[in-house]
Amino acid sequence: MQFSSALLENAVNEFAKLPGIGKKTALRLVLHLLKQDTAEVSNFSEVIAKMRSEIRFCQRCFNVADADICSICSNSMRKQEIICVVENIRDVIAIESTQQFNGTYHVLGGIISPLDGVGPDQLNIESLILRVQKEKTEELIFALNPNIQGDTTIYYIQKKIQPLGIRVTTIARGIAFGGELEYTDELTLGRSLQNRMPVENYVSNR
C-alpha cells in the first residue's frame, strides 16, 4: 500500500494493530475520520484516551468499572449472594445481554492452561475463595467456555471451595463443547443459565 502522506500511513498502521482490522479496513476508517469535523475527531480521541487512563477494575469482581466498585456489584437490586464465575470481561457482557441473570460476577482473568503456562496463581482464584468465605454466598455458577481448560478450572475451584458447603452449579451445555460464550447466541446462553446444573453432576458425566 503506497501513501502520499506519512501522517495518513501512520494512522492506518495504528488502526491495523487492532484485532480483526486489516490494512484495507484501517484505511477505510482513517479516511472516514478525515471526512469528519475536527471537533468530532478530537472528541473521539479524547474519549479513547480518557477510557484508557481512567478506567479501573472492580476491587470485588475484577469487572471494568469507573470507580473502585463496578455498577453491577454496587446495585442493591441484584442478588449479591449469587456469583457467576467467568473467564473475561467479554463473557460478562455476553451474559448481561441475555437479561437472564440478576446476580453478580467474578472475572478470573483467564483459565488454567498448563500448556500455555497459565496456572491458578496467575488468575483471580484466591480472591474468589476469600470473597466466598467473607460474604454470604449461596451459589457459585460457573460460566466458563466448554473446553478442557474450562473444565480443569471448574474442577480446581470446586475442590477448593467444597469444604465451604455452598451450592456450586455450571451452565447447562446447550453450548457445544469447544465453543465460546462470546460467540453464543443470547437465547442459547440465556437458557443455559436458567437450566444450570450442579457441578458434581457435570463432572461425573464427563
Name of the CATH first level of the largest domain: Alpha Beta
Beta-strand percentage range: 5-15%
> What is the domain tally?
2
Gyration radius from CA atoms, angstroms:
21 Å
> How would you sum up the major sheet?
5 strands, mixed
Question: Terminal Cα separation, in Å?
Answer: 51 Å
Task: Look at the helices and sheets and give the structural class.
Answer: alpha/beta
Write up this protein:
The chain has 206 residues and is of the alpha/beta class. It has 2 domains: 6-54, Orthogonal Bundle (Helicase, Ruva Protein, domain 3); 70-205, Dna Topoisomerase Vi A Subunit, Chain: A, domain 2. Helix content is 43%, strand content 11%. It contains 8 helices and 7 strands. It has helices at residues 6-15, 23-35, 38-54, 89-96, 125-134, 148-161, 186-194, 199-205, and strands at 56-57, 64-65, 82-86, 104-107, 139-142, 167-170, 197-198. A 5-stranded mixed beta sheet has the order 4-3-5-6-7. A two-stranded antiparallel sheet has the order 1-2. β5 (139-142), α6 and β6 form a beta-alpha-beta unit. α1 (6-15) packs across α2. The termini are far apart. The mean pLDDT is 88.
Give a quick set of tags describing it.
single chain, 206 residues, alpha/beta, Helicase, Ruva Protein, domain 3, Dna Topoisomerase Vi A Subunit, Chain: A, domain 2, five-stranded mixed beta sheet, two-stranded antiparallel sheet, 43% helix, elongated
